Amino acid sequence: xxxxxxxxxxxEEFHYRPIGIIRSEHTDPAKSPIQPCYAEGCLxxxxxxxxxxxxxxxxxGYSHIYLFYHCHRAEPxxxxxxxxxxxxxxxxxxxxxxxxxxxxxxSIVQLLSREDNVLHIEAIDVLDGTPLLDIKPYSRRIDCIExxxxxxxxxVDDTKAHKMGSRNGA
Length: 170
Fold this sequence. Notes:
With 170 residues, the chain is mainly β.
């Protein structure tokens, strides 16, 4: 039975189809970077299915893009979980753990080039073979927010987080 709003209106379920496949060197979640900021030098490609190739026009003018994807290998997580870079249990929605009620992933990656329906990218933290749901351009004018709060992540030491997050000696 689909969930209802507080007014009793039934909510419909959504079904998405992949628009492509993300290719990377990452095959083992335990050895993969946990965020793009820890994936410097990690190269990959995004193969867009032919029917969506025209939608890539003008994308090469951007240096970075958002990739929205289905975390197809993520195990469900409890609502309280200790994130990878800290041992304190936190609410799932205050973390970036991939095992979510709707396992949708989001990464900002550097767009190096485009060849027809293939995007060449850097700083990819996504597992090879991950289904791509959508792409959006990163815009400094729209997406950069100054003076933000970072919740519990402000407690995390940057050097330790980088070492753990890049999986180079966690």
